[in-house]
Records
---
Amino acid sequence: MFVPTLMGQCTPEQQAYWLPRALDMQIIGTYAQTELGHGTFIRGLETTATYDPETETFVMNSPTLTSYKWWAGGLAKTVNYCIVVAQLYTKGVCHGTHPFIVQIRDEETHMPRPGVKVGDIGPKLGFNTADNGYLGFDNYRIPRDNMMMKNAQVLKDGTYVKVARHGKATYGTMVFVRVLLVNEAAFNLAKACTIAVRYSAIRRQCSPDSEGSELQVLDYSTQQHKLFICIATAHALQLNSTWLWKTFSDTLAAIKQGNVDTLPELHALSSCLKALSTADAASLIEQCRHACGGHGYMMSSGLPYLYAFVTATRTYEGDYTILLLQTARFLVKAYEQVEAGKPLTPTVSYLSQAFTGKKLPWDSSPDGIIRAFQALAAGKLSSTVKSLRKRLESGLSYEQAWELSTIQLNGAAEAHCRAVMSQNYKSEIERLTVNSSPNVKLVLQQLYKVYLYYWALERTGDLLLYTSISESDIFELQLRYEGLLKEIRPNAVGIVDAFDLRDEVLHSALGSYDGNVYERLMAEAQKSPLNAEPVNQTFHTYLKPMMKGKL
Ligand SMILES: CC/C=C\C/C=C\C/C=C\C/C=C\C=C\C(=O)SCCNC(=O)CCNC(=O)[C@H](O)C(C)(C)COP(=O)(O)OP(=O)(O)OC[C@H]1O[C@@H](n2cnc3c(N)ncnc32)[C@H](O)[C@@H]1OP(=O)(O)O
Ligand SMILES: Cc1cc2nc3c(=O)[nH]c(=O)nc-3n(C[C@H](O)[C@H](O)[C@H](O)COP(=O)(O)OP(=O)(O)OC[C@H]3O[C@@H](n4cnc5c(N)ncnc54)[C@H](O)[C@@H]3O)c2cc1C
């Protein structure tokens, strides 16, 4: 995050000075925004940067314990510089949060600078290879030039000058990382399902009849139900990630031309896609662990590490709930645009159907299911706006009405995102397989159908509300889904092999390409320190005295 912020928030002159040093590793930096007391609410951050025109410096200060920067990766022992997000004060006026480049350790000795308190925040559920740290300032001075001045400036005499064309320019790095995280979610889910599917092809357990041999667990329908949605989702996230990256790049190019019109839609898309992709990836990686029984619980399976690593993405770079609420904010505005007869942006153009007042006729084709997801999203949004307005009519303020409706708002945002992801998944597969062999087309179509059928069956309640789907339609869809799993089974191992993930990347005794699971599990077990000697010294110091009643 350090380098992207230098690129996004510095003037060209500042970039010319800082970027080469950062890219050359002469300086190592991190992005310190979150504090002990605030992560989501950026406007509530307490660290201050007060400009002193006498010395042309900013005085960095941590006025309270809760103002200490907390969490930044590498902050504890690695970095010697930080991008610090602080409340900017000049001429007695607070201008809100702005980014500053702050040296925190000596470039030669690596000792913390006077006025800087820095340390490690302690063990975490995962990410323990990163030294996430804390940082406090005691009236620590930095040169005026260390304010990142692309979007706002403080002149030598302390005059504040706003430069950015849009109010949230300083939030740009977060949008960039959120876009990257969709791709990271896809990559890590692909690793987990490669491990789980390969292991499920090796593992034999239970024989349906007394004479027969034990079945590969991958042959069981319930195992296919657990795992094939994981494969389908890994592809869905990867294709949505590529689509979102292009949307991001197009928006950035437009902003460079002075056109910020598409930024709100990008913020809404990056928010909900980051939220859903990281939440789906984390829960499906856990599902891959469940599918591997006891051996999935071994660190040597690679699955606990993947889960601990990915589940954090639901929180950092914007908490799941918060980002969905950002998308909901955009959707409510889009709904009002439909009412006013104004044109809609592409990803919300389906909302016009919210005003037909009729249930969408059920169509179980892939395109029909995608339309049903859109009808579901439009219906949930319409119902949410109705709740909002009912609360406003009761005399509540907009903020109060909004807060009371946030559960529904999040549901509408999630439904919108599922519809967008499903649409992108199918259209990207069709675009990319135009010249593919019939077999490749068939397999990839089977996977997006798994995704569509799975989520339709997960959302039958909503589909009954907003489409004409019947009980028998649901019964037929369930049978079709279960039949599709059996069609995919023969290709399942080949499909995860196609992720082309090397053993060194998987780090898994269960998922290695050669399938020698049991030999690898035993080899990993031998590495346990407890196997260094036949009798551990704790027998003599604790067990034996206890057995003799001497403890
Ligand atoms: C599997 C993963 C593997 C590897 C990953 C690799 C690397 C990662 C490894 C480790 C983690 C590393 C780093 C982690 C870093 C961090 O976590 S950095 C800190 C991140 N923190 C956040 O994301 C905080 C979240 N909070 C916010 O973004 C904001 O507070 C807010 C919730 C958006 C609210 O902001 P605010 O109160 O200022 O604004 P609102 O009043 O809600 O909205 C005002 C208008 O502004 C628009 N808006 C808001 N944000 C943006 C934006 N980013 N871009 C564009 N526009 C924005 C908003 O839509 C409103 O517009 P309006 O409706 O028209 O008024
Ligand atoms: C592994 C990891 C690495 C990180 N790396 C960095 C880093 O490098 N730099 C950095 O600056 N930060 C980093 N962070 C911090 C991260 O950005 C924050 O944890 C994140 O933004 C969430 O903020 P918070 O922790 O204050 O949670 P909170 O915002 O306090 O959330 C707690 C709960 O309150 C809910 N909540 C909060 N506000 C609202 C609201 N308005 N409406 C409804 N519910 C609400 C949330 O949904 C959540 O359920 C990292 C975090 C982790 C876990």
---
Amino acid sequence: MVAKLTVAAREKALAGLTDWTFDEAKDAISRQFSFENFSEAFAFMTRVALLAEKAGHHPEWSNVYDTVSIILNTHDAGGLSQKDIEMAGKVDALLG
Ligand SMILES: C[C@H](O)[C@H](O)[C@H]1CNC2=NC(N)=NC(=O)C2=N1
């Protein structure tokens, strides 16, 4: 099982994920993505879904028309883990 990040490890990891916001209460990171329209937003969600299945690590997310909100944390660890950091990096990379 993957472990929750220590505060030091979390701060180091978040320094490399400048577009993501850390929520202390949820022990999670989040980011909102805006697209041209629903079709672009849903195409992005499809790509994230494929990443999530491959990694066995799934986002909490929502979509309203052209906007996708993603929250990442690790249920098995009860907080933020390296898996979330890796997933955030992969999601960012989708946007090139
Ligand atoms: C067995 C399976 O891989 C686990 O239940 C995975 C599935 N997806 C998951 N996703 C997230 N976000 N956290 C988890 O702890 C988690 N666990």
---
Amino acid sequence: MPANTMNEDLKRERQRCSFDPKELTYLLDGGEEKTEERRQREKFFLDDPELSETAPSDYLSHKEKYEHAVKKACIVFKKVQQLQAQGKAGMQNFREVLGGQLGSAILRDGNPLGLHYVMFIPTIMGQGTIEQQAEWISKAWNLEIIGTYAQTELGHGTFIRGLETTATYDPATEEFVLNSPTLTSYKWWPGGLGHTANYAVVVAQLYSQGICHGIHPFIVQLRDEETHLPMPGFENVRIPWNYMLMKNGKVLKDGSYVKSPSSKLTYGTMIFVRVVIVQDAANYLRKAVTIATRYSAVRHQSHIKESAPEPQILDFVTQQHKLFPQLATYFALHYSGAWLWDMYNNVTSELESGELDRLPELHALACCLKAVSAADAAQGIETCRLACGGHGYMSCSSLPITYGLVTAMVTYEGENTVLLLQTARYLMKAWQNCLDGQPLTPSVQYLNSVRRSFGGVYHKSVPWIIASMQRIAAGKIETAHRHMNDKIKRGVNSEDAWNETSIELVAASEAHCKAFIVETYYNSVQQIVPSVSQQLGKALTELCELYAVNTLLKNIGDLLRYSNVTTGDLENLQRWLEELLAAIRPNAVGIVDGFDINDAIIASPLGAYDGNVYERLFAEVSKSPLNAKPVNESFHKYLKPLLKSKM
Ligand SMILES: CCCCCCCCC/C=C/C(=O)SCCNC(=O)CCNC(=O)[C@H](O)C(C)(C)COP(=O)(O)OP(=O)(O)OC[C@H]1O[C@@H](n2cnc3c(N)ncnc32)[C@H](O)[C@@H]1OP(=O)(O)O
Ligand SMILES: Cc1cc2nc3c(=O)[nH]c(=O)nc-3n(C[C@H](O)[C@H](O)[C@H](O)COP(=O)(O)OP(=O)(O)OC[C@H]3O[C@@H](n4cnc5c(N)ncnc54)[C@H](O)[C@@H]3O)c2cc1C
């Protein structure tokens, strides 16, 4: 492959794009300066020979992969310290390098220090007193200690009120005695707990003066800071009084307990991570759809017209219908994630001044948005993999590993079903308030308007789609609420009625979330369009319309059940969908170019900027140790004796 040649198909695609992808890059980064800063940061890490991938780690053992990851994580940390010394180590740097796409490109096999930054430090900041923050944060930032977040146990991950590890206060010595008394109480899953961390935030049931006060966070030393040998014992481990993080609930030295303003403030780290997961899920989806779109512009296969040459597979409308909704979903989750991040910051600062009013709405939105973004991104990435045929299945395509990273998000930080039921709990209360004429919070205001209007006739606009999706959500919420209360009226107790209605509760929660995402996406694009070129504005509008139309068409059953839509309207929606796919087709490669994802982060022969897929695939497989010699020793050891024995 001659250096720097550009695949002809991609060249043509880039000529036909109606807008300048750089404009989209600047928009997504927040301006040209931010783009430059990001590119510099990426170059600073990706060009470092110690960090660039030599042999793919696919061929390392589990132990080698871990050691390889620790080595690279330490190099990354030192480089972040260099940025810090140059005054360039803002939170975004850390987020990008330690949690985001850049981080996962440098540390393909995971970051042994990841939990230290994304959970251990945020928990101390969110749950520690000022004194405790002063004591621990600088040590943690400077990596004098390495922490993790140990909440989940072998027997409990979801039901944290059921955690079995205990922390019992001993006023005589002013210490807490931590104990994991049963096999099922052993801490399990925390990232870095096995070999990397020497401290942990341990979430345990607090006992003092013989009373259980529920779960609270404690700092526990796991390993000796010099030898890294495990500290003695994992039963009845004693820690000093001030190792209980006491910003919320407190134990005074005499053992008396001071209640937290809300027992749920202990759950704060989980909200933070859920909020960040929305953006992370979007970014992984963006990477996958970049790979699949560029590959689909280069791959020729089959015929549309017998007389014509094999077309780019991106010209099959079914391929467009696989990929373009994923493009649109990236933007939908990106803008929903940005909105949620703003709300999180506002509510968190209100909490600082004891204002708890908006915490329930934040919790409800963080739950359903984390669940829907993780699930939709995972499904979208799998769709991108499938759209690349056999080559999408290769681990070097980066699609399987990206899917694995995102499908884990469906489980961790609150298993999706459980979180959707949390939002449903909020929605049931909201519907009751609506029936009682009580005030509603902003994210459920639509319940009032939907109850008053009949739904309006079809018109080809996103606002009509938003109203339809809100009508579906309100309908599902009302149905679940009514079915549950009918059960209770028939004598079923409320817990059983909840459980028996939980399928409909989850569906109501998902519908509410989808309606929220479409509306947030639409409002965000409406705000942006006046500030960008007419061509980019048109492309962004088409993507938003595509997300709305496609999301509604995936819900035709509910649309027919909860609105007065006609089959004629449905035909109009289908036509609108096909028009949008055709409109987006010439811009598809330009849009993914606008994501400006460095080839080293794409890390896929299918998705490189130059489009030289086949040459890159071949170069990739040549790296396999299995291809180092023409005959593998297994032939002489096993096959040949077998063949001989047959003769
Ligand atoms: C960064 C880079 C990333 C990318 C990198 C990320 C790597 C992460 C690696 C993974 C780390 C982990 O998984 S760490 C472990 C994560 N584990 C979890 O998330 C556990 C999930 N389970 C839970 O959160 C809880 O058990 C939950 C399901 C909410 C149930 O809790 P409870 O039983 O205490 O509460 P319930 O009885 O259901 O409800 C009681 C009331 O409390 C409210 N409530 C419940 N949770 C609340 C909360 N968090 N905040 C406010 N309020 C809350 C409810 O709305 C109810 O309000 P009312 O209705 O008004 O009464
Ligand atoms: C990659 C990864 C990294 C992780 N990192 C950490 C970490 O660093 N620190 C940490 O503490 N934990 C960590 N975890 C653990 C994670 O938080 C838990 O796995 C998660 O909370 C799910 O809990 P669980 O495993 O107990 O699943 P379960 O709750 O046992 O889920 C099993 C099934 O039960 C269902 N279920 C459970 N409760 C209900 C209910 N009330 N209503 C309806 N259905 C229900 C679920 O929907 C699910 O289908 C990690 C997990 C993974 C996969």
